[in-house]
Q: What sequence folds into this?
């Protein structure tokens, strides 16, 4: 009898492990994905992460698979992993499009930090920082960066900051 109760309790626990609960996480409002679309997104997750890295705008960390009410230990297809992969797919599409038109005047440090925080707040993936270009030291300038090189590095970093601002603006509803 005790074994039967333990087995039933274990089965209920396993089912409840992937069950949802109410919270205000962005993925709570996402409808359950179609199995084919969710599986396709999971299969292309590495490709989509590579697309984001190829933009060379921000340092891309790990995907955020954690969702309130969902266990990381599912014994079948985990809905929250499919949703996360679909969100990365959408972010990659939006980012590639938005990066084509950098926002002007987004280069000051406070704006960069605000945009990085906004992108992290989406809960899609970890964003570690803006990729900044550093000028190289040159023997022509006594072992320091030459002024033209420093100016070119700053311009490239500002262009990336503008792309970041455009991405954040385009992705705010994801």
A:
């Amino acid at each position: 009898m005790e074994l039967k109760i333990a087995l039933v309790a274990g089965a209920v626990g396993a089912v409840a492990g992937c069950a949802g609960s109410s919270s205000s996480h962005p993925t709570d409002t996402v409808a359950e994905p179609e199995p084919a679309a969710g599986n396709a997104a999971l299969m292309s997750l590495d490709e989509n992460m590579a697309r984001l890295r190829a933009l060379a705008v921000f340092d891309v960390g790990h995907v955020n698979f954690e969702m309130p009410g969902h266990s990381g230990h599912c014994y079948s297809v985990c809905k929250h992993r499919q949703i996360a992969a679909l969100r990365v797919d959408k972010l990659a599409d939006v980012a590639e499009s938005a990066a084509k038109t950098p926002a002007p005047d987004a280069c000051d440090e406070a704006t960069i930090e605000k945009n990085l925080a906004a992108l992290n707040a989406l809960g899609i993936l970890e964003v570690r920082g803006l990729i900044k270009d550093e000028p190289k030291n040159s023997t022509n300038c006594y072992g320091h960066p030459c002024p033209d090189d420093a100016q070119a590095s700053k311009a490239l970093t500002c262009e990336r900051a503008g792309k970041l601002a455009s991405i954040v603006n385009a992705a705010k509803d994801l």
